[in-house]
Amino acid sequence: MGRMTELPTKGGFSFDLCTRNDMLLKNGLQMPPFRKTGTTIVGLVFQDGVVLGADTRATEGPIVADKNCEKIHFMAPNIYCCGAGTAADTEAVTDMVSSQLQLHRYATGRESRVVTALTLLKSHLFSYQGHVSAALVLGGFDVTGPHLHTVYPHGSTDTLPFATMGSGSLAAMSVFESKYREGLTREEGIELVAEAICAGIFNDLGSGSNVDVCVITEGKTEYLRNYQLPNPRTYISSKGYTFVKGQTEVLSTKITSIQPKVEAVEGGDAMEE
Amino acid sequence: MALRGDWMYENNGGTCVAIAGIDYCVVAADTRLSVGYNILTRDHSKICSLADKVVLASSGFQGDIRALHKNLAARHLLYQHQHNKQMSCPAMGQLLSNTLYYKRFFPYYAFNVLGGLDNEGKGCVFTYDAVGSYERVGYSTQGSGSSLIMPVLDNQLKSPSPLLLPARDAVTPLSETEAVDLVKDVFASATERDIYTGDKLEIVVINASGIKREYLELRKD
Known about the structure:
The structure holds two protein chains of two kinds.
Chain A: H1 18-26, E1 41-46, E2 49-54, E3 58-60, E4 63-66, E5 72-76, E6 79-85, H2 87-108, H3 114-127, E7 134-142, E8 145-151, E9 157-159, E10 162-165, H4 169-179, H5 186-203, E11 211-217, E12 220-228
Antiparallel strand pairs in A: 1-2, 1-10, 2-11, 3-4, 5-6, 6-7, 7-8, 8-9, 11-12
Chain B: E1 15-20, E2 24-30, E3 33-35, E4 38-41, E5 47-51, E6 54-60, H1 62-83, H2 89-102, E7 110-117, E8 123-128, E9 134-137, E10 139-143, H3 146-157, H4 176-193, E11 200-207, E12 210-217
């Protein structure tokens, strides 16, 4: 019998290894943890557009993996997206939709719309049934005006005047619920977003370090990286640390000299015709 | 784990450090009390002054730690009544070990570091696990930030191995100010990377003149 015709590879996850994974877990294997961003991300609509905000701490369990990461991702010149959840997932999904939007802009010859990004994100996340752990706050300004949406890992979305996501979302939402009103000015909007992120930074252990802000208005986007730095290091030893030779114990030394190169013979290359 | 009906413990986080010097002992712990991703309070002391020359720092489950400190304080009072003197650090060390092992099959979820001056006035640090295994050392750390701090102390304090013969002193030759400076720096570093460590640092120094307390602000995020 000849070989069977190869089936074309399907897209999506291959679940072939699930039984083998189950067996390994039963035998006591520890799966490596994902890096989650344990985050506070927020967005609000003000009179001229939207303001997005995020903290900058990425955690791996109880340890801070990155003290100053970027959680506000570029989607289009007029659309930005904050991401909470598994760092690889938020990064991958925003990069992918950003590329798709760019191709779409070339095809249509128009500025991208927020609902386009929204539909692309939600259909991708829904098709992965929640396994892509990305919780997003999507905001932008297009021909139809300012828009703010939240996207959940399973693919549902909400359209809101103000929104928070991540482990610090309750702390941030408490600030928004007290102080938000319609028709905020740009300065008021930025200040309120910064205050909400700070609430997450100081009251949620999964969030911390600095405040990033992004202001999107008609025809103009300002990405204010590290808008506030409310957590400087409190103490640094003036003595410093010196590492003298011998502080690290050398157990043994072996020196191997490099062999001299063998000269290649000129002419007569076997590969040539 | 918390979903099980029978899980009796909770980890309130935090880190403790103790360093023994020639004629002093530094015991320090942060003051943050947390549960899960929340902060319960920024100003909770994990350090208990048990006797004139003995200080205990514990991290872990505060419910058990409170009970343990109360237990030891009561036993110390009894000792004073019976022997007409304060307990020495090595004596308290043994008492703590026995108290912990007494609950071997329902342990105190407490990770302890005992610091003080021994009978000769030299710095004395004992480190424990949850069920009472202990050892006299030159320095130690316990708690959520311990794996971040221990390698730095190993590098800077370079105590001789307890396996070497003849037995050499494990105490550091650093001065009191240098040791306190090291503790502050090491905690500031641990605060950067451990989410459960922060808010404020309480530093207790025990020397011949008594017990002195100092505070340092740490990052609050």
